[in-house]
Amino acid sequence: MKYILTFLASLIICNSVEAKDFYVSKIGNDNYIGSLSRPFATIYRAQEEARKFKNEAVNIYIRKGNYYLSKPIVFTDADSRKDDAILIIMPYKNEQVVIKGSQKITLKWELKKGIYQALVTDKILKFDALYINEQLMQMARYPNYEKGKLPFGGASADAISPSRVKEWQNPKNAYLHAMQASMWGGFSFLITGKENDSTLTMDGGWQNNRPSAIHKQYRFVENVFEELDTFNEWFFDENQHLLFLKSNQNPAQLIVETPQLETLLEFNGNRDPVKNITVKGLKFSHTLRTFMKNREPLLRSDWTIYRKGAITLENAENIKIEKCELTNLGGNAVVFSRFNKNNTLSGSHVYNVGSSAVVFVGDPLAVRSPSFQYEDFIAYTNLDKKVGPIGDNFPSDCLVYDNLIHDIGTVEKQTAGVQISMAQNIKVSHNTIYDVPRAGININEGTWGGHTISFNDVFNTVLETGDHGAFNSWGRDRFWHPKRAIMDTLVAKHPELIFLDATQTTLLYNNRFRCDNGWDIDLDDGSSNYIIKNNVCLSGGLKLREGFKRDVENNVIINNSFHPHVWFKNSGATFKHNILGATYLPIRVNDWGNNIDSNFFMNEASLKKAQLLNIDQHSTAGEPEFVNAALGDYNVKQNSKALKIGFKNIEQNFGVVSLDLKSKSKKVAIPKILPLLWKADDTYDFAGVQVKNLTTLAERSATGMATETGVLVLDVSAKSLMNGSIKPNDVILKMADFPIANIKDLVDARLNLQSRKTALIKIFRDQKEHSITVNLK
Fold it and tell me: What is the 8-class DSSP label of residue 587?
């Protein structure tokens, strides 16, 4: 908590210094003096005046209203202040101030054949997005947008089928969006024209660092005139400068806005860092989408990046963004690029964002012997073997604290609530993050560690992608080689390579994670030098793939377990004092690290399976006696046997702390702890499919089953990925290679298949057995 106390102390100091005040108002004039009675009209003018008082604390107060920017507000080292002379930009007396990157347009609309159209006389006006009364309209698209439908709000295999393309007269400047074939994010393409009557020419597909074909099913097309067929869709004809809108309201009576800028606020020092500026209480809205600019590869991960956001910081120090609202943005919300030190995002609400909410990304030139593609490697003889970074051109010692982040990645799918790459000592604490297409928090590689991820509440994650976690990390650092046998030999012979990049330990503690479509905590390829302690995992369990020096202690894992995958020899892993809802689910683990013991299993069978692996000899099993599992209190009572194996109760103070953000936040769904023995009438939600054990003669008669075995399907949600393949009254008999006699078998099979996107299921239907393939994620 030391860094949080230091942060709060700095606020007290800032607010105690007598400051010079300037004012900005919608009814002001830049020729005025900037006083309360004679305010400036623009923030640019107030900034210019503030530069004259670099040795004094300055407050720029902005009166209520929407401020449409003609260009980004850029702070350079000319705006830097001394530590005791901070510049603060904030609303006057908490008035509502909105900084917009859009332009409000007034047009003469005509209704023709059920579609409004208007001539746009401004030839340089961009039409990338359209807001009407603050509601985002959809570019004319196929399939039509359906709120809540995943992925993309609707997708279809025939989005660019020859028969559909034939119907498009001129699809130039349309876009194709599609998931990556393995669901590791997405791709976007600019359609440049038609090669023949039914074949498109396209440019793009660089938005994911793991190249592949596009997904055969999950794809959609937008900005096609012929697809303008439903309310709240629009299309701009660049040749005729005509704007078309299908609406059930006359747009002449509404506020129509279109974004023109991709960045609203920029901190960028020239020779020296820009320092000591605070932005407080402002709302930022309406930026351009930037998905076609997202093409810079990060280090051997799935990611590419674009180093711009609505707020962009580079070569900046001691900059604070506090209690702001960032919404209706086309790209990233806040980007800390290259050198950033002691900068803070706190108390803010970030939502409805096209890409990531918060991005930390250093300079690859600071990385020794960097590799960018998964398959890349540098031979040992050519490898820079010095420890740590080159220079300091990367984010360090920055804080993301008490922010509410949700509904991000609305355009791009390889995104995160907080993304960290080529950075050091980043603190991510007390944030609530949910409703995201991929990870809530993602650490891209080991360079250079030292991060603290604590007291966050992260749920409803990996909603549109796969093979990922609520918290995800990679560690394909200098020791990494794409061929496992070569890497095994390399690290055995040169173990000093392992921590050349992950120089400091990353702490992951006192968080609550829930991922129903992957792992709650997913330390993927090579992730090394972690302490994972006091976390609550509500659904997806905890996965450690190959890596070194991971200490996992005192975590609670509900309805799931520990997933160790393909460990190195001498990994140095420890796993102790954890409470587990199921038995371990190892994949190709021959060397069990330093200490896998003194854990608490919720049933004896799970413990015995673990002990057959010659581990957990001092572990025990039983009822953990949680204080109140139904309400999510997973501390244990004083007489719990879990305390005897070393478990200690956890401080469960997850997520945002500000009262206003708490009141706005969605609450995580607390799972029912699955029983060891299912009663005859117990039901289970299996990925949107309601099931129960087949137990009665009447159920046998209704299904045609010869015996009372298997799992009976009661209902299939329209939103379930299995909808259309599984039907009510089916009986599930087998899943992949796992026989299914009851719900417990089904739950165990699903845990063993957690990394799979599909599974072959044997069902009994219409008096005979059938084999069908179902989607799991």
Answer: B
User: CA torsion 41→43→44→48, rounded to 10°?
Assistant: 100
State the Cα–Cα distance between residues 744 and 96, nearest whole angstrom. Answer: 54
pTM: 0.94
Nearest to 334 by CA among 417, 260, 413: 417
Interatomic CA distance for residues 213 and 222, integer angstroms: 20
The answer to whether the beta carbons of residues 476 and 491 sit under 8 Å apart is: no
Give the alpha-carbon dihedral of 450, 456, 460, 465, to 10 degrees: -10
Q: In this predicted model, what pLDDT tens digit does every residue of 300-358 receive, in sequence order?
A: 999 999 999 999 999 999 999 999 999 999 999 999 999 999 999 999 999 999 999 99
For the chain, how long is the longest CA-to-CA vector? Answer: 90
Give the Cβ contact number of residue 753 at 10 Å.
17
Strands 186-194 and 175-180: antiparallel
Q: Please state, in angstroms and rounded to a whole number, the distance separating the CA atoms of residues 658 and 599.
A: 36
- pLDDT band for 14, please (50, 70, 90 cuts): very low
DSSP percent split of the chain into helix, strand, coil, nearest 5? 15, 35, 50
How do residues 381-403 score in pLDDT, each as one tens digit?
999 999 999 999 999 999 999 99
Could you tell me the end-to-end alpha-carbon distance of the chain, in angstroms, rounded to an integer?
38
Q: Which of 372, 549, 515, 342 is nearest to 444 (CA)?
A: 372
C-alpha to C-alpha distance for 115 and 137, rounded to whole angstroms:
14
DSSP three-state, residue 561: coil
Helix (H) or strand (E) holding 72: none
8 Å CB contact between 243 and 125:
no
Give me the count of residues in the chain: 777
Give yes or no for a contact between 583 and 601, defined as CB atoms under 8 angstroms apart: yes
Query: Please, what is the Cα angle at 212 between 210 and 214, to 5 degrees?
Result: 125
Q: Could you count the other beta carbons within 10 Å of the beta carbon of residue 173?
A: 13
Structure confidence by residue, pLDDT tens digits, 631-671: 999 999 999 999 999 999 999 999 999 999 999 999 999 99
Q: Where are the beta strands (DSSP E) in 642-730?
A: 683-686, 689-693, 711-716
- C-alpha 727/C-alpha 706 separation (Å) is 19
Sequence letter at residue 538: L
Q: Residues 423, 445: contact at Cβ < 8 Å?
A: no
Q: Is the dihedral of CA 150, 156, 159, 160 positive or negative?
A: positive
| DSSP labels, 321-336 | EES-EEEEESSEEEEE
Residue 723's Cβ-side half-sphere holds a number of Cα atoms within 13 Å equal to 8
Stated as kind and residue range, the H or E segment containing 48 is helix 43-50
Kindly report the number of other CB atoms within 10 A of residue 71's CB atom: 12
The single-letter code of the amino acid at 540 is G
